Amino acid sequence: MHLVNTQSTRRIAGLATLLVLGFLGLAGRLAWLQIVEHEELAQIVEKKLQRNVPRPARRGAILDLRGTVLATSVPAKTVCADPSLIYGHHELVAKTLAPLLKLPEPVLLKKILPQVTMLTNGVLRTNKYVVLKRKVPADDWEQVKRAMGGLDLDLEGKRMTTSLQQAVKGLRTQAVFASEDHLRQYPSRSLAAHVIGFTAGGEAETDHGRVFEDHGVTGIELTLDDMLSGVHGWRKPGEEMAPTHGLDVVLTLDANIQNIVEDELARAFERYSPEGMCALVVRPYTGEVLALANLPTFDPNEPGRAANGQRNRATADTYEPGSTFKVVAIVTALSDGRLTLNETVFCENGRWFYGGEWLRDYRAFGYLSFEEVVSHSSNIGTAKAALRLGEARLYNTITNFGFGQITGIPLDAQARGRILPPKTWSDISITRIPIGHEISTTPLQMAMAMAAIANGGVLMQPKLVERLQDGTGRIVRQFSPHPLRRVVSESACNEMKRALRSVVSDDGTAMRAQLDYYSVAGKTGTTEKYKHGTYKSGKYYYASFVGFLPIDRPELCILVGVDEPDKGAGQGHTGGVVAAPVFRAIAERTAAYLRIPPDITPETEGGAQGRLSAELAHRRVTPRTAHGLPTSSATR
Question: How far apart are CA 297 and CA 314, in angstroms?
Answer without folding.
Answer: 12
